[in-house]
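To assess whether the prediction recovers the assembly geometry, we first specified each molecular entity separately, as shown.
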Amino acid sequence: MRIIGRLDIKNENLIKSINLEGLRVIGDPNKFAKKYYTDGADELIFMDLVASLYNRNSLHDIIKNVSKDVFIPITVGGAIRSIDDALKIFDSGADKIAINTAAVKYPNLINLLAKRFGSQAIVISIEAKKKINSWEVYIESGREQTNVSVQNWVKEATDRGCGEILITSIDQEGTGRGFDTELLTTVTKNTSVPVIASGGFGDLKDVKAGFVESKVDAIAVADAIHHNKISLRQIRKKALSLGLNVREFNQ
Amino acid sequence: MKIISILNYGCGNLLSIKRAIEEVGYSPEIISEKKEIEKAKFIILPGVGAFENAMSLLRYKNFIEPLKQFALIDKKPLLGICLGMQILLTKSFEMGEHKGLDFIPGIVTSLKKKSKKKEIKVPQINWNKIKFSKESESTILQKNIHNKNFYFIHSYMAQLDNQKNLLGYCNYYDLSIPAIIYSENILGCQFHPEKSGKNGLILLKNVLENLK
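The predicted structure of the complete assembly is given in tokenized form:
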């Protein structure tokens, strides 16, 4: 089980977002990334929230810089639409890529990417909004609806060979009100690949809600650590006290 | 200072490995030519992706014979990481059946097929603890390593013909997965030492120092 630091990026800045809408600048992502490495993050996720909108990705330089001093896995997402885009991101130092919009529009891209880079390097990022009795997949950083149900998309992405699923609740994202455990459970029940929970973490009780109640394999934390409300060390301590199988980290 | 050559055959996270080698005080170089394999003192074989792709790239670049000369005849130190470890074995059953380098006898098999647990998560993406078998306790490579967490990310695993080639393993569901395999001057890690934080760097340093 992993505890992941998630950094949402707009232009060259780490930003605070609510419901995936970028609100304001927090600071230099390099500085935060290095701090989270030192504090024992098991992995870092970088998401360019506006890349999809402008069809570009400004993360290359950030990733190149971060991967010089950070010796843990790095996942990068935002406007990856082709094998070529993926290659550039991997060459910058990413270990995994996260795709949302392009995968929903051209699902066969998942098969192609998995074949070229291996399933383990392909994370399907799902941004979900709650409907009455289900969840709908959104694309373009939560701006556009698709009429695709999360449950069906999870199954299809798994069958097509993705290696991991990052599920973000748009409703909970940036609010610190806790995970949407029903959404997370819907995902973990419908796939055999590891699942990363994102959106809503705001309290140490969410450690249990994610790992135990929803059976996710990793939780991604953003605002809570960016604003020093909770530290990665506290989260790890909490997970260990629950007897969960997380990395022991005492440095 | 000992120069560590990272073999670029179009398959692997060269930059991360390069940075990790610098970090532990060695000089890395990236090599892409047959001639450079002959001159190298210590080679790292990276690898990310599919087995068949990695082997056909090595074949296409005519790297297989020079690697055999380097590791089996000249007996110079070779470290394989992740898929770079798996291709050290005899053959793989990843999407068909494919020949490996056959430097260490054994096969590569799927976690899903090997496990009897239906709920097994594949790939294993996990900071798992490495355990060492009793016989290998005296080896220099394991200093500060036993029971420490390392970063694994893989869907296939080694299955060794001889247990004497097993240095360390990890437990995952009902599986005991070879984590470090070796044979004299050849060593392979299933996990990524360059992505395993401080412990990974310690292990990498031990290997670069002591693998001869």
